[in-house]
Design brief:
This protein is mostly helical. It has helices at 3-25, 29-50, 56-67, 69-86, 91-96, 98-126, 133-143, 148-158, 162-190, 198-228, 233-253, 258-277, 280-307, 316-344, 354-360, 366-373, 379-411.
Length: 422
Amino acid sequence: MTPIDVAAILVVLAAVFGYVNYRVIGLPHAMGLTIMGAVASIAVVVVDAMAPNLGLGHAVRAFFVGIDFRTALMDGMLAFLLFAGALHVDLSLILRRKWTILSLATVGVLISTVLIGVGFKGLSLLLGLEVPLIWCLVFGALISPTDPVAVLGILKSAKVPASLEAKVAGESLFNDGVGVVVFSILLAAAAGAGDFSIVHAVELFLLEAVGGAVFGLVLGWVGFRAMKGIDEHNLEVLITLAMVMGGYALAQAIHVSGPVAMAVAGLLIGNHGVSLAMSERTREHVLQFWSLVDEILNSVLFLLIGLEVIAIAVQGAYLVAGIASIVLVLVARAIAVGLPMAALSRLSPFTRGAYPVMVWGGLRGGISIALALALPEGPMKDLILTATYVVVVFSVVVQGATVGKVARRVLSGAVDADNREI
């Protein structure tokens, strides 16, 4: 099938499942699509087992192999989703909490990677699975970053305080760049293509993350200046589209982090661009356009997360490892958030109740699955992919559906000390 055929099938499925969910099931849109996608995949597996002569399972698996989830997300959808999500984040709140966000996006990711890696090694020993420590650390690296797409999508309906939303959203916008760098280094060591080196890790981080931030600033400034000099809403929408498509491609070409660049450029355009470079009419068209892009791509992404269950190698021990990893990831998240918060609280207090919301609101999503699918073929990939998928589905469906309730419960009566927070 052509890419147009694949896109048509996915959009039609997203529309049909979304309609059924809205009219019959009534779940939040993202969770509904994920659950219905997973149920549809399981139904295909069951039908294929009962009537193998139909060849349904083979046809569906061939379809998903043709999609290449990792390329579709990391090299395509992610640029649009990050830019669209960053447009609606208040930059002033991000800057006022820069040390919190920086510490969680760097130190927090590293702490979580180590804790999950060591814990997964112990878990594999209990289950009688031979998993080298380096592969356990690879799993820790790909599952540690919170997913900006999932987080930003869920926060829209969670109704948490603006200051707390800024910390959770800001962390998720930037920690995936750190996570991908750590993942790349550990995967190279695990596959025998390189040795783990702190110096190499620092060099890669500076090139990818810091370089991506600088490139994003330049890209956002160029777009800002271009839009400030004109007043034509259709052309200005086209300029933002060119920033995303051309900017992401250029970031990859010069080997800096495209996701970080899109987040920074989106923050700049969504704040200074919207307020200083756009007329009221242009502002309305630009924000509506990117809101629509965000909604369509989010629908397809969460549907794909659910449908990807058909790519999982179902084994009892792997499923047990995945279920146990849910607890492992949550514990690691609690520690990785708690330690930086405890250190920074000496400088300035946090909003009461922020800690449990940040722990429970640290959702994992499509980026983790995309990284797991990028692993070389073999038993390590099957195990890590299964564990990753179980954790992501739990995160999107259970944590995503309840983070709003958790926020309302723990923050009820709390006073948001905006002027004292980090």
